[in-house]
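Here is a tokenized protein:
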Amino acid sequence: MVRSPHFLQYSNLYGVGFLAAYIFINNTINATSDIMEAQRLNKLLFEWWEPFIWEYSSALGTLALVPGIVYLLTAYPFNFQAMGRSLSVYLLASLIFSVLHVSMMVGIRELVYWSNNRDYDFGLLWYEFLYEYRKDLLSFAFLIAVIKGYQYFMAQLKGEARVLQSAEESVQPQFERLLVRKLGKEFIIKVSEIEWIESSGNYVNLHINGRAYPLRTTLTKLSEQLISQGFCRVHRSYAVRLDAICSIMPIHSGDSEITLKNGKKINLSRRYKEQFKSLLLIDG
């Protein structure tokens, strides 16, 4: 398997970084193109810095709205079985996107021009908004395509685990192995190799040797399934394998900090302390 724990751990930050780099490079090219075109026609009717303000203010407004698009895709995924409703939701979202983008863009420009003792004229409001909305609609669709594409790529890179079990097993089977499909291949991992578990929406991430494997289940259900195999819930978002613990240190808030043998530090919430202590004594 490909070892890329750092990239997988900070994949969202890398994704934002890649997108920001693309947008700013593209907008820098647009700004320099405006200057070069004006100079070629001997019609440089603006200061050299103005195209950069126009383009970068748009870039900053766009990036600020990316979390909103991610939320939209998560909370209201496009449903092809109810296409009319989904199209209506996404069309309304694109209008909101454009209004917010134009507002931030113009606000930044007004501030920069004011600081330079200049006035910025956006033009006739309804006409300019219609002009901007045409471009924003394309940007909105582009961002959705990029985000969905990146999410699919990361899903393939991370892989997804599923429990190896027979049809006769109970609702909460005791399992020892999981099957991971990753980059077109299938691998078997042992439950005893899992160091800690992290809740992530409708999934939990199984952390093994710096890698994270998503499994579609809840942390509550999984921690109950694995309690007999030496796992304990220590936080509303975390569970750990007791054998993977190196040390435990109380902190001033009343919680404690668990340090795993791999150096990972995890919070032990007061809510789970009694259960943790009892299981630790049994395990010992």
Notes: The chain has eight helices and eleven strands. The helical segments are 5-9, 11-40, 50-64, 66-75, 83-115, 125-158, 219-225, 273-283.
